[in-house]
């Protein structure tokens, strides 16, 4: 069956999909909590466990789901091992968010006060360090090349964050710099989750296309995140909106608006940007100059590219769900 058929079918999640996603998350979350509770290497005891447990809840578990679907699609069925590798990816993801919250001075994440806000930066940094080290300990249970792939992905994450920090404040950030940053800070982990899932399945012919699928989905996911920072609701997102503008981060909507705007207005906006003033005015200018619509069309083009990479992969339930999840990720509200 050609991918086009999937696209013309409803991308609505069926009751079977919803039941699968619900039970996956329930099982994953239960064992995730147990992993921390039972870890004998958390030397400072109850306090550290309490902090670590606080940050585990609330995520969508998207990366572990992608890993699971890629493994199943390529014929691997050991649920226990798939789950442990899902822990690796999710631990790195959560730890990087904790560190990101320290760097952004953020108060809220996933609808709760951040650890850096409630317990201070040192505790947030150290809890994140603990979660990273636990992730690598679990990754080492797996054969080559999985631990190395995970470690390289984490290096990219640091690189992406570094580049974003270095280039922040630049109103004229180029599209290629932006894409490189979001590849490193976001798409790499999507690519990594799907890649290591496919490696478990040991299906070399699908590995390349699936990994690239992960990369394009990651681009689209981050651009959607950046769009939601403009037009989302902080209640739905569980974090403040317009934080990118407040932090001086030029993202896809602004980059797109720049290309459509009048030169005079653009220089006025640059002046406001440099003075870190009136971010609402910059927001209105981005919207008026089609920044959101254009950013959405960039997302859509990445998702189309991602879909086309699955054309030659054998049809199965997991492939269908993967396509639905990717396409729906653009329309999410949180
Ligand atoms: C959130 O993005 C942050 C990230 C996706 C990556 C953060 C990465 C690090 C802190 C480096 C990690 C280093 C290693 C070695 C693993 P965002 O700020 O755009 O989103 P937000 O609005 O949710 O904060
Ligand atoms: Mg942030």
Which fold name corresponds to the CATH topology?
Farnesyl Diphosphate Synthase
Q: For the largest sheet, list the strands in their spatial order.
A: 1-2
Shape: globular
Overall average residue pLDDT:
92
Tell me the number of strands: 2
Q: Can you tell me the number of structural domains?
A: 1
- Rg over alpha carbons: 20 Å
Number of helices: 17
Query: What CATH architecture would you give?
Result: Orthogonal Bundle
In the CATH hierarchy, what is the class?
A: Mainly Alpha
Provide the succession of SSEs. Answer: HHHHHEEHHHHHHHHHHHH
Helix and strand composition category = mainly alpha
* Low-pLDDT stretches: 1-9
What does this structure look like?
The chain is 75% helix and 1% strand. The protein has 334 residues and is an all-alpha fold. The chain has a single domain (8-329), classed as Farnesyl Diphosphate Synthase. A two-stranded antiparallel sheet has the order 1-2. A hairpin with a 2-residue loop joins strand 1 (108-109) and strand 2 (112-113). Helix 2 packs antiparallel against helix 3, helix 5 runs antiparallel to helix 7 (121-139) and helix 13 packs across helix 16 (291-308). The longest helix is centred in the middle third of the chain and has 28 residues, at 204-231. Farnesyl diphosphate is lined by residues 92, 96-97, 99-100, 104, 154, 157-158, 161, 185-186, 239, 243.
